[in-house]
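Q&A log
Question type: sequence-to-structure
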Amino acid sequence: MVEIEYKNTRIKLGPSDLVYEPAEDSFLLADAALEEAKPGMCVLEIGAGSGFVSAVLKANVEGIRVFATEINPHAAHCAKANGVEVIRTDLFRGLKKGNRGISFDLILFNPPYLPTSEDEKVPGWLNYAFDGGASGRETLDRFLDEVRNYLKPGGRILVLISSITGLEAVKEKLMKTGFEVDIVLKKKVSFEELMVVRGKLV
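Response status: OK
Response body:
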């Protein structure tokens, strides 16, 4: 199995035709999460893929508790191999809301953000990593509709988006669902700008 090293962490990668390989978006979200996470926090990563971001957090933030969800069975297997406690489910579906379940200080998500038509879909499980629907925001919107049910009071989220996702539409949705919004990191990559958007419950 191929491995990469990042921020004192060795991460095993799954087969590239089955599991999304960490790239600039993954590194940017990991960097933002390291800035945001504090010792003792309870953190959830939605759509963890190989477990890259969660593994980096666990290795670098003392006393942190990290949980993850992932829909792709090959990616979930890879995340487990990287020491991540992962549930195979779609977004929040396998978790209990609020008082009946666990609540989180910080929730992370690197959603599929590419606007995707029917003829642009990738075959198999890897499509879940890329297919953002016609707007590029379909999966992100589903996430934002539910996320506050799983946050502690004053909890925060970090989501990775691209300039092609439509920043203003994302900010508007976040504010409508009760978040203060700011951008914590940006990086220009070829034809797009990647951004990590932070939402704080108010």
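Response note: The mean pLDDT is 90.
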